[in-house]
Write a structure and sequence with these properties.
The protein is mainly alpha-helical and 665 residues long. It contains 25 helices and 4 strands. It starts with a helix and ends in a 6-residue tail after the last helix.
Length: 665
C-alpha cells in the first residue's frame, strides 16, 4: 500500500467517523467515543502516510474521472502537501479526544452529535484539499471544509452572537471560494488544464490576476489583514476544540493555497515579494495590537492567529523576494521559516485554545475580568498554557523561537542587499517582527497573570477544578511537541528542505541552487539545539529545586495604602493592564471608552469601561453591508409573488438578449 492509498483510507475513515454519534441515541457516550476513535484512527493512518512519504519518497499519482469532461481528479502528495498534512492530522486527532470531556454527548451537551459529525468531515476535507493535484479536487475539499466549519461555528445557534459569527464566516468563506474558482479558471486559460502546472508567463494579465486573487481572496481564509473580519467572532463562538482546529490548521489551508499558487510561477516580479512582505508585516503588528485590547480570552487568541499568519506570510514574502532577485539563501530561509512556523503555530495555538477551553469549561465564561488565581486549582492547565505562551512569544527554548530566527536571518541578509528597495523592505520588516515579539510578550503576561495568578475576581473561581485526562492529555502532548522542535530543530530540517525544493521547482535554475544548500548548514540549528537543550535543562532543574523549597506561608492581606475595604477587584484588569498599549495603537484600534461622570458632592459608585472592537468590521464592512441592503431593498417592489410577473421578467430578458448585438458584430 503506497502513501496515497493510505492517506485516502484515513480520510474516508475520518469522513465516516461522525455516523456512530448520529446513529446512536442522543445522550449515548458510546456513539461519541466511537466517532472519536474512528477520527483518531483516520488521522493515525494519515500520519503514517506522511511518514512513509518522507522515508520512501513520493508515490505515483492517483487519478479518476471528474464530472468535468476532459478533466480528472488527481491525488499527488509532494513535499509541500506532506508538510501541511502533518499538523492537520495531529491537531484534528487530538481535538477529537479533547471533545469527549469538553463537549460530552452523554451529558446532553447541545448539538454534540453535530460536532462529532462535522468535525470528522472537516478533517477529511482538509486532507483531500492538501493532497489534491488539480484545481477541481482542491475546490471540492475547500468547499466541504468551509461548509463543515460553518456548522461547527454555529454549534450554539440559540445565541444571536453565534448566528452572526456563522453568517459572517460563511460570507467571507465564499468570497475565498470565489477567488479560488477564479485562480483555477485563469490557470485553465493559461495551461488548458486544471492540473497543477507551471505557468508559461508570469507577467501576463492572467498571472497577475491569479496572484492578486490568491493573496487577497484566498488570503481571506487565512485571516490576513484587512480581510480577517470573520476570524475573531468565529473562533470565539465555536467550541474550544473546534477553535483549536480552525486556528491551528483550518486557516493554514488559506496559507497553503497562497503557497501553492506561488509555486506555479516560473519567475516572480520583485514587487510581488515586497507587497507580500508588507502585507505580512502589517497583519502581524496589527493582529497582536488588537489582541492586547481584548477582554474575551478566545477573541484574544483569535487575533494572535492573525499575527502569526502575518509572520508566516512574512517568510513567504522574503522567499518571493529571494526568487525575484536570485538569492537562494533568502528563498531557503524565508520559505523554511514560514513553513516551520506553520507547524509551530499549529502546535502552540492549539495548546493555548485547549488551555483556554479548560478554563472556560470550569469557569463557564470567556471574560478575563472575572478570572484570577486559577493556577493553584488547575496546575496542569496553567503549566501547559505557560508553555504555549512562551512558545507564541518566540522565546527559547521553545519552537516559536526557531522559525522566527530563520526569518530574522533572511531579513538581515536582505538588509545588506545592493538594491535600496529590498534593503528598505527588510529594514521595515525586521523591526516589525521584533515589535510583534515584544507586544506578544506583553499580551501574554497580561493573560497569564490575570487568569492564573493573583486572587480570584469573582465567586466562580472558588468552584474551579482541574480538567480530566481527555483534556489535559492532548495539552501535555502538544506542550511536549513545542519543546521537541525548540530543542531539536535539526531533526526537521530534511522535511523542510524537501518542502522548499517542491515550492521552488518551477524555477529550474534557482531550484538547482536551492537543492545544493541545506537548512542545517545555512542556519545554526545545531548550536541552537545545544543552547536550547542547556537552557531547558537549567529551567527543569531550577523548577524542581524551587518546588522542593516551597513552604506553606501564612495568608495575609497586601498593604492597601490605608484603604479600609480592599477586595480582589482592585487588581489590574485586562483593560488597565493594556491601557497604555491600546492608547499607543489608538489610531488603528479606535477603542470605545466610557468615562464616569462626577456630578455629586459625595463619593458614589462609578463605572469605567473600555472596549476594542474590530475597526475594519465596524467602520468598513458593516456600513458597506447596510448600504447594499438599502440599495437592494429598492428593488423589492419587483418581487410581486406572482408567477405570471416572473415569467414576464424572463420573457423581457430573453427578448433583450436576442436584440442585443456585441460591438463590432
Amino acid at each position: 500500500m503506497d502513501c496515497h492509498t493510505l492517506i485516502l483510507t484515513g480520510a474516508a475513515l475520518s469522513a465516516l467517523s461522525g455516523w456512530p454519534a448520529v446513529a446512536l441515541p442522543a445522550r449515548s457516550s458510546t456513539g461519541q467515543s466511537l466517532a472519536a476513535l474512528m477520527n483518531v484512527a483516520g488521522c493515525g493512518l494519515g500520519l503514517a502516510a506522511v511518514w512513509m512519504f518522507f522515508v520512501d519518497g513520493p508515490a505515483a499519482p492517483l487519478s479518476c474521472p471528474s464530472p468535468v469532461p476532459g478533466s480528472d481528479f488527481i491525488v499527488a502528495m509532494d513535499g509541500l502537501s506532506a508538510f501541511f498534512l502533518a499538523p492537520v492530522l495531529l491537531v484534528c486527532g487530538l481535538a477529537s479526544i479533547y471533545g469527549l470531556q469538553y463537549w460530552p454527548q452523554r451529558e446532553g451537551a447541545a448539538n454534540a452529535r453535530r460536532v462529532s459529525f462535522f468535525l470528522g468531515l472537516m478533517t477529511a476535507a482538509m486532507v483531500v484539499l492538501v493532497v489534491a493535484g488539480d484545481g477541481l479536487l482542491f475546490l471540492f475539499g475547500w468547499e466541504t471544509m468551509a461548509v463543515s466549519a460553518m456548522f461547527l461555528v454555529a454549534t450554539e445557534d440559540q445565541l444571536a452572537e453565534t448566528r452572526r459569527a456563522a453568517w459572517l464566516y460563511i460570507a467571507a468563506s465564499h468570497l475565498a471560494t470565489l477567488s479560488a474558482f477564479g485562480v483555477f479558471a485563469l490557470l485553465y486559460s493559461q495551461t488548458g488544464s486544471f492540473t497543477y502546472s507551471t505557468l508559461p508567463d508570469s507577467t501576463s494579465a492572467a498571472a497577475v490576476g491569479m496572484a492578486a486573487l490568491a493573496l487577497f481572496g484566498i488570503g481571506t481564509k487565512a485571516g490576513l489583514m484587512p480581510v480577517h473580519v470573520w476570524l475573531p467572532g468565529a473562533h470565539a463562538a465555536a467550541p474550544s476544540h473546534v477553535s483549536a482546529i480552525m486556528s491551528g490548521v483550518m486557516i493554514k489551508m488559506g496559507v497553503y493555497g497562497i503557497f501553492r499558487v506561488a509555486s506555479f510561477f516560473p519567475e516572480i516580479p520583485l514587487s510581488w515579494g515586497l507587497l507580500t512582505l508588507a502585507v505580512g508585516t502589517i497583519s502581524a503588528v496589527l493582529g497582536v495590537a488588537f489582541a492586547i485590547g481584548q477582554h474575551d480570552i478566545k477573541r484574544l487568541l483569535a487575533y494572535h492567529s492573525i499575527e502569526n499568519i502575518g509572520i508566516i506570510v512574512m517568510g513567504l514574502g522574503l522567499a518571493l523576494v529571494g526568487r525575484a532577485t536570485g538569492h537562494a539563501e533568502w528563498v531557503l530561509l524565508g520559505i523554511c521559516g514560514g513553513l516551520l512556523h506553520v507547524w509551530n503555530h499549529a502546535l502552540f495555538k492549539s495548546l493555548l485554545f485547549f488551555g483556554a477551553g479548560s478554563v472556560i469549561h470550569s469557569m463557564g465564561t470567556r471574560d478575563l475580568d472575572v478570572m484570577g488565581g486559577l493556577g493553584r486549582r488547575m496546575p496542569t492547565t496553567a503549566t501547559c498554557f505557560l508553555i504555549g505562551a512562551v512558545a507564541i512569544c518566540g522565546l527559547p527554548p521553545l519552537n516559536g523561537f526557531v522559525s522566527e530566527l530563520l526569518i530574522y536571518l533572511g531579513l538581515f541578509g536582505a538588509i545588506q542587499a545592493d538594491k535600496s528597495s529590498m534593503a528598505s523592505a527588510a529594514a521595515f520588516a525586521a523591526p516589525g517582527l521584533a515589535l510583534v515579539g515584544a507586544l506578544a510578550a506583553a499580551c501574554f503576561v497580561k493573560v497569564y497573570g490575570i487568569v492564573f495568578l493573583g486572587a480570584g475576581r469573582s465567586e466562580r473561581t472558588a468552584r474551579v477544578h482541574e480538567s480530566g485526562p481527555a483534556m489535559t492529555g492532548p495539552m501535555i502532548l502538544l506542550a511536549g511537541c513545542c519543546a521537541l522542535i525548540g530543542v531539536a530543530p535539526v531533526l526537521f530540517a530534511p522535511a523542510l528542505d524537501q518542502a522548499a525544493s517542491t515550492w521552488v521547482a518551477a524555477d529550474a535554475g534557482l531550484n538547482a541552487r536551492v537543492a545544493e544548500l541545506s537548512l542545517s548548514t545555512l542556519a545554526p540549528l545545531v548550536p541552537v539545539s545545544i543552547v536550547a537543550g542547556i537552557l531547558f535543562a537549567l529551567l527543569a532543574v531550577g523548577t524542581i529545586v524551587l518546588l522542593r523549597r516551597v513552604r506553606t506561608s501564612p495568608k495575609s492581606l497586601t498593604w492597601d495604602c490605608g484603604y479600609a475595604a480592599p477586595s480582589a477587584r482592585m487588581q489590574y484588569s485586562s483593560s488597565s493592564f493594556a491601557q497604555w498599549l491600546v492608547g499607543l495603537f489608538g489610531w488603528a484600534l479606535r477603542p470605545r471608552i466610557h468615562l464616569p461622570k462626577i456630578d455629586t458632592l459625595f463619593p458614589a459608585d462609578v463605572d469605567f469601561e473600555s472596549h476594542v472592537d474590530d475597526t475594519v468590521l465596524q467602520r468598513a464592512v458593516n456600513p458597506a453591508t447596510r448600504f447594499f441592503m438599502w440599495l437592494f431593498g429598492l428593488s423589492r417592489h419587483l418581487q410581486q409573488g406572482s408567477l405570471q410577473v416572473y415569467l414576464l421578467y424572463i420573457l423581457l430578458i430573453v427578448v433583450g438578449l436576442l436584440l442585443w448585438k456585441p460591438a463590432g458584430s
